[in-house]
């Protein structure tokens, strides 16, 4: 068997690693199994001069100790632990316990020629005559169980992603190695003659101890991995602020996912890519969200096989958190720039459409009216008919009214001469529905703000159908050093037409650095806008 010092050193390493893992709450099931392995290694492999109680305990602990270590590696680092792995681990421990009890119940030291061995306190006299069959059953049980555990542990490593392969190989390889050595020992016991000295028992047991140490040291190494990974990534980030491709590429290499995708969030929650354009969620990938003060600023879309709660993944991402926040701010700035460009395009398009409408109104309205008047005056002059001249004068009056209305639509003169409140009250004389204005707490803020609010009221009034009880209410407040606010409500409302018209109003308010909120239903339309005092 192994030297006493080697077994105790391995037991100490397993105990220290298990306690460290339990303190970090990383893999409690695996740590518990490793701690049990450490305790069982103390009596396991007792020498011939050991006391009778310790000798009896060693008969059970010898197969149980390596199996606990193999199960500890098998359970690492699955979180949450799958039921099948949990069941397999307990079944393996149960098989090792049964094998140890079978061997202890039937083992008779005197019949094997061991004159220095103490008495077996666990021996059952009727079972001692069945020592050979009992040992064979125990060997078969341990061989099959060890082979299954070895295959499952190796399969877990093979199916894992590159990140899990890199960080979990000591535990999984150690588990597979210990289980494979137990299966090898079982085959050796089944095939060797019982009356010959077993030269291979010592090397096989020593190999199991070395592999158990690999599992324990692997667990300790795994605990320090997040800090070492974070330090390495932080050095790369702090060396020089990387571009987006370098940053994302570094993260992808560290977590072992070459297809890693990073998206960002605007303040309103809209998802965008690094260029500021709208981005969609990736349904086939898992997501890790990065937050600051409760708000998500970036999302890492990684392969589903990578555990989002992995401390290595978290440490890797947290170490580059400042760089990701910087990139997220750049993405939001690009998004704002794209919004401004789109707003300018919409303003130009709206202005073009407005000029086209004015051209048609002039051609089809006032121009045609004046042409008609001209023809009537020509005919009246030829006939010298006073009644015809009177009708012509009426047509001229109507045409002039149309021109005044058209000019008022282009830009109300009262807005610059008398202010916003007076212009809105004058507007009420031309709307199809009553317009109620309340501006007692409002102070003027300049022509641009006045025109934006005036145009907003015009758009809401245009979206309000003429009906019994229909009314548009306008409330103005603020100004004179504080933000200017407007609230326009209309009942009833045409929500589709309102949303179409209010796009222009949103652009005007946004151009002044303000905000606009719209709630449109079939029963009512409520629009609230705010413009900062510096506009």
In short:
The protein has 535 residues and is of the alpha+beta class. The protein is rod-shaped and about 155 Å long.
Helix/strand class? alpha+beta
| Rg computed from alpha carbons, rounded to a whole number of angstroms | 43 Å
Report, as a whole number of angstroms, the end-to-end distance. Answer: 87 Å
Number of helices, counting only DSSP H or I runs of 4 residues or more: 16
Mean pLDDT: 77
Largest sheet: 5 strands, mixed
**Number of E strands:** 9
Give the DSSP E fraction (strand runs of 2 or more residues).
5-15%
Order of helices and strands: HHHHHHHHHEEEEHHHHHEHEEHEE
- Choose one word for the global shape: rod-shaped
Provide the CATH top-level class of the largest domain.
Answer: Mainly Alpha
Give the second-level CATH assignment, the architecture of the largest domain.
Up-down Bundle
Residues in helices, as a percent range: 55-70%
> How is the CATH topology of the largest domain named?
Rhopdopsin 7-helix transmembrane proteins
Number of domains: 4
Q: Give, in spatial order, the strands making up the sheet with the most strands.
A: 5-6-7-9-8
Low-confidence stretches: 126-130
């Amino acid at each position: 068997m192994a030297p006493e010092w080697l077994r105790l050193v391995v037991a100490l390493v397993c105990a220290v690693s298990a306690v460290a893992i339990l303190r970090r709450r990383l893999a409690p099931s695996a740590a518990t199994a490793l701690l049990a392995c450490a305790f069982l290694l103390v009596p396991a492999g007792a020498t011939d001069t050991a006391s009778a109680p310790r000798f009896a305990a060693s008969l059970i602990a010898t197969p149980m100790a390596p199996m606990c270590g193999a199960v500890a590696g098998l359970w690492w680092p699955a979180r949450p632990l799958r039921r099948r792995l949990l069941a397999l681990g307990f079944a393996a421990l149960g098989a090792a316990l049964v094998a140890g009890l079978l061997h202890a119940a039937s083992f008779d030291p005197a019949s094997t020629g061991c004159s220095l061995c103490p008495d077996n306190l666990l021996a059952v006299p009727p079972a001692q005559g069945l020592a050979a069959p009992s040992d064979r059953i125990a060997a078969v049980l341990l061989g099959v169980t060890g082979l299954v555990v070895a295959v499952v542990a190796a399969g877990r490593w093979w199916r894992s992603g590159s990140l899990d392969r890199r960080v979990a190989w000591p535990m999984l390889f150690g588990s597979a190695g210990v289980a494979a050595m137990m299966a090898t020992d079982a085959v050796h016991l089944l095939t060797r003659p019982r009356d010959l000295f077993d030269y291979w028992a010592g090397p096989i047991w020593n190999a199991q101890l070395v592999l158990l140490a690999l599992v324990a040291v692997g667990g300790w190494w795994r605990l320090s991995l997040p800090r070492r990974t974070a330090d390495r990534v932080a050095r790369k980030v702090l060396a020089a602020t990387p571009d987006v491709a370098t940053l994302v590429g570094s993260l992808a290499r560290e977590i072992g996912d070459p297809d890693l995708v990073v998206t960002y969030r605007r303040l309103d929650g809209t998802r965008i890519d690094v260029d500021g354009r709208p981005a969609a969620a990736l349904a086939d990938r898992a997501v890790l969200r990065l937050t600051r003060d409760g708000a998500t600023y970036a999302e890492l879309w990684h392969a589903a096989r990578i555990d989002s709660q992995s401390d290595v993944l978290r440490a890797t991402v947290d170490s580059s958190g400042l760089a990701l926040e910087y990139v997220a701010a750049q993405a939001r700035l690009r998004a704002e720039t794209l919004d401004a460009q789109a707003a300018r395009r919409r303003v130009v398009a709206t202005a073009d459409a407005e000029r086209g409408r004015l051209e048609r109104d002039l051609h089809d309205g006032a121009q045609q009216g004046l042409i008609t008047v001209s023809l009537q005056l020509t005919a009246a002059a030829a006939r010298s008919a006073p009644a015809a001249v009177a009708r012509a004068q009426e047509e001229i009056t109507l045409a002039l009214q149309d021109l005044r209305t058209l000019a008022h639509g282009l830009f109300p003169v009262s807005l610059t001469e008398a202010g916003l409140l007076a212009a809105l009250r004058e507007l009420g004389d031309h709307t199809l529905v009553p317009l109620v204005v309340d501006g007692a707490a409002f102070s003027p803020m300049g022509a641009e703000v006045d025109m934006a609010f005036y145009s907003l009221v015009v758009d809401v009034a245009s979206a309000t159908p003429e009906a019994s009880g229909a009314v548009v209410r306008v409330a103005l407040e603020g100004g004179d050093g504080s933000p200017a606010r407007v609230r326009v409500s209309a009942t009833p409302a045409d929500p589709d037409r309102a949303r179409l018209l209010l796009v222009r109003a949103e652009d005007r308010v946004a151009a002044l650095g303000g905000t606009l909120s719209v709630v449109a239903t079939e029963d009512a339309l409520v629009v609230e806008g705010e413009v900062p005092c510096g506009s």
